[in-house]
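Box 3.1. Reading complex inputs
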Amino acid sequence: MKFSTYLTHITGVKIYPIISLLIFVVFFVLVIFWMYRLDKNEIARIENLPFDDQKN
Amino acid sequence: MNQEKFFYDNKIPRAFAIACIFWGVVGMLLGVIAAFQLAFPILNFSDYFPYLAFGRLRPVHTNAVIFAFVGNGIFTGVYYAVPRLLKTPMWNKALSLIHFWGWQFIIVCAAVTLLLGFTTGKEYAELEWPIDILITLVWVVFGINLFGTIFTRRERHLYVAIWFFIASWVTVAMLHIVNSFEFPVSFMKSYSWYAGVQDALVQWWYGHNAVAFFLTTPYLGLMYYFLPKAADRPVYSYRLSIVHFWSLIFLYIWAGPHHLLYTALPDWAQSLGTAFSIMLILPSWGGMLNGLFTLRGAWDKVREDPVLKFFVVAVTCYGMSTFEGPMLSLKNVNAISHYSDWTIAHVHIGALGWNGFLTFGMMYWLIPKLFDTKLYSKKLASAHFWIGTLGIMLYAIPMYWSAFRSYFMMKAFTPEGQLQYKFIDIVQTVVPFYIIRAIGGTIFLIGVFIMVYNLIKTAKAGKFIASEEANAPALAKEYVAPANSIWHSLIERRPLLLLVLSLIMVGIGGLVELVPTFLIKSNIPTIASVKPYTPLELQGRDIYIREGCYNCHSQMIRPFRYEVARYGEYSKAGEFVYDHPFQWGSKRTGPDLARIGGKYNNVWHFNHMLSPSSMESATIMPSYPSLYENKIDKASTISKIHVMRKMGVPYPDGYEAIANQDLDKQANEIVADLVSTDKHIKISSDKEIIALIAYLQRVGRDIKLEEKNK
């Protein structure tokens, strides 16, 4: 049986795309919000991770 | 804190690097041969054997460059960078070895089977089902090894390069599995689970995202590691890289339908593809600028250091193709570019510039490190840089030119309202561009040979360091997050959460795009006169797929005056409901075949396949003499019909038993017609050419019947 048959049986399947859009918008707002609140020292440490092997 | 001693293994990165360069040379060489074949059909050698004809060679070229060259390039970078970023060796040496040899085995299997004609007929996913399963297994081994390493790490924070690797791993797994749903008919033959419009949508959702998550995101991971290393300064903006990552993986997955503009795909899906493609400019350019700005204050180094030269052009090419891509997804631009050499130019800016140059830069940086020495010759590397750049330009410019030239010729009408040029006129005028392109490709390849020489000399001058000692404290069990850290740093510390979120991101995009087409019947209007293929036509279709005809011929007429006038009534979604797989194609080196049925008589096809130039002197199509020798594989008819019915093609119950009788009957009719039209023709009805003629005469006829019945 085609898998679409199962999908048609989900009640209110049409709301799913709207919910997912909302999830994404919220997620992105949070990412950007978080981005500005990052601690500068922490960034400096993380940015330099690729260079850690040279220090050893 | 106690320092723990451990060793980074360099053998696996070296092995992948060698494989990457070796397959790169092979893949590019095949590309050069294929390019010359388009200008000089004699190079198909098809009078002697069928294995090297363009239709079979081109998929080997594309697969070799994508999965062998770039694939091994990704693994080189991952196996070098990930342990160092996480301060731990790769989790399991045996898995690393299985991954390495498994991947090389797959590549060899792919090359052999594709040349032998075993193909699913879906671009960039041509490999048959046993190899698909093998790919899945090796990919899982890679995943286990990657996550094993992540879980045993000594650095809590996952650097941005690793996010890209994780997202690439999970998305490629999803794409490969969804697109490879196929029903085996025999050991090396299967039919796509999906048909027609749905198959096309899944295929280009896959095709587009294979570009995104195999050629782009893992290479962005490499960029975020090797560019700072080579420039000896951290990435320009770590903040930007966070936004780059999430927005890129989110938007990319939706853009697939832009490969199907003006086709029989439902309009809403086309618009969705366009909208998301335009949005993609932002994250792509954010990433590009992040790469370029990393060189802030270090531009003087770019003059000296060949590694940085390669990186700068690679990132610039990334910027160019990610600007061009969204432009190509605008419907009016796409009308010009689709099926034309423009697409070929576009992908080669990406493949030669972005993937090629980034790989070369990485190798020039990495090989001296692995061998504890300096690069043998900076001058040679600089020469490679300039030769490579010239090669890219000589490749791309003729292709752009040819695309516009053929577009204007295709759409030219005489004042009387007739098409001004025949298709063959257009072919003839672009052949010189094919020659220049092939020369451009050759020059690029010469550059690669210079690199190979330079790197071998470098390796010989140094001493290979099989493993590097390092020290780091173990990961503290009880971790206290810094005071101002919030939820995203949580994600960055939790690889599984990152994996799941990435999967949700790409999964939902994929579902929203794919599911409605499967759900709503009105997307694929049924046409009463469209009937399943007869057994002979089905066998003929499989020959069409085997010979890779779709590499040069589309089966999709767009609703433009100049296409309808040239090829016939534009294609409807309902015409393809029994096409497992779809054969719309993506490039018209030859004319569209969607309405070829009934256009010429059987004798024309018979003579044309034997010697195309006897029917059209300027043609660049190879001949197919083996079809006149090989017998139709009638033993397979039963299982083919059976599998088709399983997938919903309405053959009557028990039709398998009599299918071959129908096949013989139709074949005899075609032979009778051939002989009665041309007395010189001698052919028996069990030869493959008869099946192919039956198929070609069927393509696109159902609609014509519908119109007659009106």
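In summary: Helices of chain A lie at 3-8, 15-37, 40-47, 52-55.
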